[in-house]
Design brief:
With 155 residues, this protein is of the alpha/beta class. It has one domain (3-146): Mannitol-specific EII, Chain A (3-Layer(aba) Sandwich). Helices cover 43% and strands 21% of the residues. Helix 1 packs across helix 2 (40-53). The mean pLDDT is 93.
Amino acid sequence: MELNDILEPDCVHVCAQVADKPALLAGLAARAAEVTGLDEAQILGALMEREELGSTGLGNGIAIPHGKISGLDKVLALFAKVDPAIEFDAVDDQPVDLVMMLLAPPGAGADHLKALARVARLLRSDQVAEALRGARTAEDLYRVLMEPLPDSVAA
């Protein structure tokens, strides 16, 4: 699964002055509702339900909140660069500034897992994370995200 299959340019944002994790998730849910036409409360509920199981903050400033949403026909991604970084209950207790939200239809088990793995590999690349942190606009972020994976990450 390629990132350009699930991430559209209008789903990449720079989020300045986000107060906290709930505010970030609410903002991502609102944007996902705009893009999909689905219910914002349903999307936010799925994200919060998943976070209650354990934080999706992976460490090193990266989080991949995700959930399953009825009414979707494929996996959807939204990316946000949060500036300044916010507390996210990440596994390393460090604040988060790079967030890729994934939404999937209830029956998309394999596709959902492939997307999670792909995004985790991408964002855990020091080279990619550094480029994303240096990007200033949504267009620049999207360009970095669409670049081929570095050889050390692609395997």
